[in-house]
TrEMBL record:
Keyword Transport: yes
GO annotation, cellular component aspect: membrane protein complex
Any one GO molecular function term: transmembrane transporter activity
Keywords from the UniProt entry: ATP-binding, Nucleotide-binding, Transport
Originating organism: Seinonella peptonophila
Start and end residues of each ABC transporter domain: 3-232
Protein name: Putative ABC transport system ATP-binding protein
Record family assignment: Belongs to the ABC transporter superfamily.
SMART domains the record matches: AAA (SM00382)
Length: 232
């Protein structure tokens, strides 16, 4: 298993109040797979994804990603893991407004070791002609394509997408989902994606439903649906 999580727990402390956000998560995803996490706001989806990606830490339990015990890494090794192995895509793109498209993509560390280069990823995400534009000169969908290019240029083993279509309209969402499916196929990148939209789950190999910090349902799609055929 590429991702294998056992009994992961996480609480946040605020003054004297402790809130248990993850209550013993168990999760598996195979290499090259697409996993989707569904669940209401506040159910712990982003916390879970951030722990898998080394942005946050679990309190207890085991989080293994491609043989690495993520929860056991010291701070330096966790940073290296995150920089070398993980790509992140967020709802609001997180681009630097004062940098052009190609400069936004170049800020990523570790790209010198990558087999991919700027022109190839710009081509792959379909914005080769917009290389010298600034984020404000792009539509939301185009900005999300830049953020996907930034995430994949280091050829990460795992691409983590936290509500990647949350700020986009229907047809733009569909084209972004298609792009993520293409990245998964072309580069063999394992993808874990958070969404509110149950229809999107049809394109996943595995679906995890999270509620109040627990996985309450899990399903396996034998034949994931191509994003362009999803109706919602
Ligand atoms: P989701 O992504 O499913 O909306 P989150 O993982 O962001 O949920 O948050 C789950 C719960 O943890 C929420 O109740 C949220 O308020 C709390 N939480 C998230 N991050 C922090 C933090 N850094 N400090 C304190 N509480 C947090
Ligand atoms: Mg969230």
């Amino acid at each position: 298993m590429f991702i294998h999580i056992l009994n992961l727990k996480k609480s946040y402390q605020s003054g004297v109040v402790t809130t248990e956000v993850l209550k013993g998560i168990e999760m598996k995803l195979e290499k090259g797979g697409i996993g989707v996490i569904l669940g209401p706001s506040g159910s712990g989806k982003s916390t879970l994804m951030n722990i898998i990606g080394g942005i946050d830490r679990g309190d207890s339990g085991s989080v293994v990603v491609d043989g690495i015990e993520v929860n056991q890494l010291d701070d330096n090794k966790l940073t290296t893991y995150r920089r070398e192995q993980i790509g992140f895509v967020f709802q609001f793109y997180n681009l630097v407004p004062s940098l052009t498209v190609s400069e936004n993509i170049e800020v990523v560390s570790h790209i010198s070791h990558s087999p991919l280069n700027m022109d190839e990823v710009l081509e792959a995400v379909g914005i080769k002609d917009k290389k010298h534009r600034f984020p404000r000169e792009l539509s939301g969908g185009e900005q999300q394509r830049v953020s996907i290019a930034r995430a994949i240029i280091k050829n990460p083993k795992l691409l983590l997408c936290d509500e990647p279509t949350g700020a986009l309209d229907y047809s733009t969402s569909r084209s972004i989902l298609q792009l993520l499916q293409q990245v998964n196929e072309k580069y063999g990148t394992t993808i874990l994606m958070i969404t509110h939209n149950t229809a999107i789950a049809a394109m996943a190999d595995r679906v995890f439903k999270l509620r109040s910090g627990e996985i309450v349902a899990e399903s396996v799609n034998q034949i994931p649906v191509p994003a362009e055929r999803i109706e919602w």
